[in-house]
Each structure stands twice: as structure tokens, then as C-alpha cells.
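Form 7-S
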Amino acid sequence: MIRQMKLATWELQKAIYERLSSDIALNEIITGVYDNPDKNTPFPYVNIGEDTSVPFETKVTFGENITSVIHAWSRAEDGKREAKEILSLVLQSLSKAPLLVNGFKVLDFGVQQAQVITDIDGITQHGILRIRLYINN
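Output:
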């Protein structure tokens, strides 16, 4: 049996972007949500990062176990507080209702890891949130 297979990563990124860029509480703190920020992007901001996709199949469906990384960038002078608050707001936004991923069905959503580190420049706080989604075609 031949099953149509397609990757959900681009549609998922668009759904994450839409959710985060329209979240009022998050956007009161950040300057924007970006896919590819440049060196002049004003702090603090959120960047939709890397994905990994591991396929899973049943007799009748094709799906993916997707890990998606969302980065928070801050240069607040009070340490890691702002980056941690941004990550919390990102998670609240993404978990308040199921994500609507065009052409796919989200079966499960969870957090894989969250951390905040001081970037190599010594002044930038880098928040990293790894979320995991099971998505069916």
C-alpha cells in the first residue's frame, strides 16, 4: 500500500509563528518573532529555530515526531530573569490551545527541555525551549 507522505515542519513553523506573533502578553515584552534575525535585531526577541523530524508509520497513516526549538534572546541587565519570563510566555502561548497546523493533525504536544544560558559574548542571555509534537498527515 502506498501512502502519501509529506513533512509538517514548514506548516508547523507557520502555526508557531502565528500563535507567538499574535500573543498580546508575549509581544508586550519582546520586539518580535523571527525566523532569521540579523545582527541589528533589537533585543529582546524570539527566534523560531531548528527542527528535527522522525517519521512514524502505521498501516494507514504517516506521521512525525517533531522536536522544534524556540530561542529567546535578552540583554536585560538583571541576569536571566527576562529570558526565563519570555520562555514561560512562549510556553503559555503554545499550550493554551491546540496548534492548528494546516493539512496536519497535532496528536500530542509537550516540553522536552527548557534552559537559559549566558551566550559566548558574556552579556546576552539565550533561552532555549525544545518542544515535542506528534503530528499526523
